[in-house]
Amino acid sequence: MALSKVDLANQVENILPETLGGTGASQFPAQFRNIIINGDMSIAQRGTSTSGVTTTDGYYACDRFYTRTDTGTWTISQSTDVPTGQGFANSFKLDCTSAGTSNADEVIIRYNSEGQFLQYLKYGTSNAESLTCSFWIKSNKTGAYSLNINNNNTSQIRLISFAYNIDSADTWEKKIITLPGDTVRSINNSNTQDFQAQWIFGAASSFTSGGVSNTWIDYAANRSAPSDLAGLGGSTSDYVNITGVQLEAGTTASDFEFLPVDVNLGRCQRYFYMHANTNADEIGIGGYYSSSQIFCDFQFPVSMRTTPSVYITTGTNYFRIFRNGAIDSFNSLTFGAGNVNMFSLYNNTEVSGTAGHAGFVRPENSSAVIGADAELWLTQ
Questions:
Q1: Which sign, positive or negative, has the C-alpha torsion 231, 232, 238, 239?
Q2: Cα–Cα distance, 244 to 40 (Å, whole number)
Q3: What is the rounded average pLDDT of the residues 297-305?
Q4: Helix, strand or coil, per DSSP, at residue 7
Q5: Which one, out of 53, 80, 270, 297, has a CA that is 20 to 30 A from the CA of 124?
Q6: pLDDT tens for residues 2-38?
Q7: H helices then E strands: how many in the chain?
Q8: pTM of the model as a whole
Q9: Does a structural domain hold residue 141?
Q10: CA 122 from centroid of its chain's CA atoms
Q11: What CATH number does the domain containing 160 carry?
């Protein structure tokens, strides 16, 4: 039965105080309390697996999770190995396929966040809020690992690091770590990489010699991880799975906040949007501006964080335009113009048609990919 206006108003009145941090049950948002987007690893726009990853840092498989693998060779994937009975369908997995030297260099999973979303934490004041991080983790190798948080304040980067243990090999374990708020430095109020969580699974002595800090300090690389860091990457048996990642204000861990998949996808698309990655996809409506030049514009489903860079693969007859009963094939598309809401692609070297003709632009080859990247890339 449809809700009346009175019933709907009552529901809104009951929801808003808690959602907006008012007089409800909690001073923190009841919805979207998890700072981490895609913590259940359900979204993987780039694909479910990338093999042969060595020293090229980047975003692979699960959206929003950035990896640095500077020792060994890895397959990075969206895995279906999950803790039983917790509601998760996927985890993020790093699997060593060619051994390097354990703790010779970094093996890290990072999550980068915009500072403008975190002003409610009140960092840089005496009222700075504590944070609680909870996550499920599984690895073949027991021992000490670390979680650290960077507050990338433009005046002085701040760091807090904590050690935790993986106690049983090949077993899902839930970890909960509570850390105090940073009363010294505020979080930049911007859309850049202002706040960073890092799970460190391997690191050289320059990152471990000082041990974990357990409190906020001015950034010192050697305080990033425990001196007895177990270290992954030295054996082809090494792997780590992680899921159910939640970072929230307060001193207790609440149940994981599951979001509808469409909501989760939209939040990920602010940072990366895969527009076409199969020859069954539509790129957009295009047209011949002149006999040798076509343009094709399309809108993003959500406003992106910033004007994105364009991710396009090219090759012989990778694209085509259907127009006026004909099909014209061509090899490439080039970025023309764009903003946070749309961009324009063109080709003016490989096409021949009639000015004014419009048509559908599509991939012709299954290897043709078009994406838009506005990710928060590592800057330090």
A1: positive
A2: 5
A3: 95
A4: helix
A5: 270
A6: 444 344 344 433 433 333 333 333 566 668 999 999 9
A7: 3, 23
A8: 0.90
A9: yes
A10: 24
A11: 2.60.120.260
